[in-house]
Amino acid sequence: MTNFTLLPDPASPLARESAAQAFADILDGKVAEPEIERFLIDLSVRGETSIEIAEAARAMRARLIPISAPEGAIDVCGTGGDGHHTLNVSTAVSLVVAAAGVPVAKHGNRAASSKSGAADTLEALGLDLDRAGARAEESLNELGIAFLFAQAHHPSLARIGPLRRRIGRRTIFNLMGPLANPAHVRRQLIGIARPDYAPIYAEALEQLGVDSAAIVSGEEGLDELSTEHASVVVSIGSSGLPKRITPEDAGLPRHPLVAIRGGGPEYNALALHHLLEGEPGPYRDAVLLNAAAALVIAGEASDLRAGAEEAAETIDKGLAKALLACWIAF
Known about the structure:
Blueprint: H1 16-27, H2 33-46, H3 50-63, E1 74-78, H4 89-99, E2 104-108, H5 118-125, H6 129-134, H7 136-142, E3 145-149, H8 150-153, H9 160-167, E4 187-191, H10 198-208, E5 212-218, E6 231-237, E7 244-245, H11 265-276, H12 282-297, H13 304-316, H14 319-329
Parallel strand pairs: 1-4, 2-3, 4-5
Antiparallel strand pairs: 5-6, 6-7
Subunit structure: Homodimer.
GO molecular function: anthranilate phosphoribosyltransferase activity; magnesium ion binding
Binding site for 5-phospho-alpha-D-ribose 1-diphosphate: 78, 81-82, 86, 88-91, 106-114, 118
């Protein structure tokens, strides 16, 4: 077993080579669990640097089970852990954006801190996760959407999950999901729950390489664009988004965050079903705002207002609903 006392003190920023070796050893099972636990807690208390985040992501990317994706594919994903327990916005956005013609490689998992994760809600809608996973590459290329179930693509994390639950606090692995997409997408809309941390996270993503991406965070600590408050935006590459976004920028009204509070998988699935049927309200507006940003990043819309209009049309024409039905039957 590797002993982390041989590495630089985790209370001080790790050099790139040290960080790369540390996360490689963790994922390869070369480090005893007590040492991993101490290491991750120390990093969390001190605050992870962009180099450490990037090297942890590189280590995960090197060990994942990949799929190929069409040119221009995007992922819309949040880091989670914001504590607001909202409906599944990024899952709905993925359906809308894919139905608008942009391939979406949706990376996600079951709920960790929320009541219903992307996997839970999609399963409640009728998607067979095993079949969808086995045919992810086909569905992405033929339908323009795929769900990349994190636990199926990251076997190296199997021993880390129980340890993370035992630690019971945020660690660097809470930040990894959007940075380790198995389709290696180069366009991303990533939500994080810490507005002040967006620049550091963006630096990490820039080190990993993307064509067009944005890190967004609602000012209330929401891991997506907010329809109650303004949101912080840090763009990378050619995203084309402003540094601060309000609902009004997309021609949308504001709503209190409690209006999109979610529940369990069945509750969230029903809300998503009503959304795809064209039901107006706060959930629809949250989806339109975030879909608008994704469409701008993908080069499908010129600005947020145009993106929101295209997203609304996609829903109202029944295209997103039809895509979900085809996906379930695929």
